[in-house]
Amino acid sequence: MPRHHSYDARQVFIGQRLRSARVRRGFSQVDVAARLGVTYQQINKYERGASTLSALAALELANMFQVSVAWLLGQPEGTGESPAAMDRLQDQILAAVARIADKDLQTLALRILQTIASPAEPAI
């Protein structure tokens, strides 16, 4: 008989945020695990909502992904948009890039998005 897992909806939501931030920053689960000092399986559990993040892990991950702990835990950051709306947009962006079959074009799309997202360097 298959086991059915019942995870807390808040943990699942936080896990989705964690995965979204990790993917946006270009980290693998192995990369994150090494930096956090845990196994990649533990990162997978966090992302599935099967394991609860400690406060220290949440802080470390938020710093690693350059997001606030509040965002990671589902709080809006004064953007006026709900976390759900922001997540939908991010999911649409990820899905659009994933549909690009040519890996070189995927890389180009990523570089364009990274350029747009990065603040301009001040002229000296």
Mean pLDDT: 82
Beta-strand segment tally: 0
If you compute it from the alpha carbons, what radius of gyration comes out, rounded to the nearest whole angstrom? 16 Å
User: Helix tally?
Assistant: 7
Strand content: under 5%
Q: Looking at CATH, which topology of the largest domain would you report?
A: 434 Repressor (Amino-terminal Domain)
CATH superfamily of the largest domain: lambda repressor-like DNA-binding domains
CATH class of the largest domain: Mainly Alpha
Q: In the residues, how many domains can be counted?
A: 2
Outline the biggest β-sheet. Answer: none
- The CATH architecture of the largest domain: Orthogonal Bundle
Overall 3D geometry? globular
Helix and strand content put the structural class at mainly alpha
Uncertain segments are: none
Distance between the termini: 66 Å
Helix amount: 55-70%
Note down, in words, how this protein is organized.
With 124 residues, the protein is an all-alpha fold. Helices cover 65% and strands 0% of the residues. It is built from seven helices and no strands. The longest helix has 17 residues. The protein starts with 8 loop residues before the first helix and ends in a 7-residue tail after the last helix.
Please provide a brief summary of the model.
The protein has 124 residues and is mainly alpha-helical. It is built from seven helices and no strands. The protein folds into two domains: 1-75, 434 Repressor (Amino-terminal Domain); 76-117.
What is the secondary structure topology, with strand pairs?
Blueprint: H1 9-25, H2 29-36, H3 40-48, H4 55-65, H5 69-72, H6 83-98, H7 103-117
Helix pairs in contact: 1-3, 2-3
